[in-house]
Amino acid sequence: MAVEDAPPSGAQAVVRALRVLHCFRDHGPELGATDIARLLDLRTSTAYRLARTLVGEGFLERDPGSSRYRLGASVAELGQVLYRHRGLYRAEPLIESLAAVTGTSPGLAIRSGRSAIVVVGEVADPEAGVGVHIPLHASAMGKVLLAWNPDFEAAELGELVALTRRTITDPHRLEAELVRVRDCGYAVNDEELMAGKRTVAVPLADEFGQVQMALALRADATALPRERVAEVAEIGREYAPAFQRVLLRPTV
To answer: What are phi and psi of 122, to 5 degrees?
Structure first.
């Protein structure tokens, strides 16, 4: 039996299983064992065993007709648990109000590694491959999460991939942009993530003044022209204390 074919054990098995789930985040919604094996550089037999284990625990489902896999109910359940435990549901009335006032699609994001994770609100465009994971360097919410991080260095993001012709790909330019974000108190994604989309984002800080979330307001570029950016950003900043109270400040 080859080393790769041996049943993975311990921490390695856990890491591999989590990477299988991440494949569906980046390349889903349905994948076969051969797709998983190619994406993770595993033998197909290993990918099949990992997927079968995840099916048994409810994290994946297998289509009996196509033998392909998709995310299972356990993933959705954990998402709902996070939504409740973090109190994210308390932001929904504020999201609805902000959408009505600004004519935008508001959302909340936190940082995870090199991405901003949308935890409340609509994802950007799943059909175009832009889902809940948003590249930090190419998004207003990402810039907010980086700008108020005193330990951030552009090198930790690795290559800054161009997603549109307007994406910032120069680390020095990104660092200069983050200085501008801190100075004016908000960030702008000017068609840097998706052509035809513009986003404004403002920081949300906890009781210690540490920025933990970004509040983003996204719209078509025609509905959010550059001359409206400062106005929309100011509205976002006016709403920020209310979001902070319900999400980041402990109740007395």
So the answer is: -75, 145
Q: Which of 55, 94, 95 is nearest to 75 (CA)?
A: 55
- Quote the CA–CA distance of 232 and 234 in Å, as a whole number: 5
Question: How do residues 66-96 score in pLDDT, each as one tens digit?
Answer: 889 998 888 878 877 777 777 778 889 999 9
* Among candidate residues 91, 29, 38, the one with its CA nearest the CA of residue 66: 29
Provide the angle, in degrees to the nearest 10, between the axes of the packed helices 33-40 and 10-27: 110
Helix (H, G, I), strand (E, B) or coil at 210: coil
Angle between helices 44-56 and 33-40 (to 10 degrees): 120
Q: Which of these, 187, 226, 248, 217, lies nearest to 100 by C-alpha position? A: 217
Alpha-carbon distance of 103 to 134, in angstroms, equals 22
The label of the residue with tokens 């200069």 reads: 176
Q: What is the pLDDT of residues 173-218, one digit of tens each?
A: 999 999 999 999 999 999 999 999 999 999 999 999 999 999 999 9
Residues 143-175: tens digit of each pLDDT: 999 999 988 888 889 899 999 999 999 999 999
Q: What is this structure's pTM?
A: 0.76
What pLDDT score does 129 carry?
Answer: 45
Report the alpha-carbon distance of residue 191 to residue 92 in Å, rounded: 26
Percent of the chain topping pLDDT 70:
90
As a whole number of angstroms, the distance between CA 187 and CA 178 comes to 8
Cβ neighbours of residue 85 closer than 8 Å, sequence gap 6 or more: none
Calculate the CA dihedral of residues 28, 34, 39, 41 and round it to 10 degrees. 160
Query: CB under 8 Å to 37, separation ≥6 — which residues?
Result: 43, 44, 46, 47
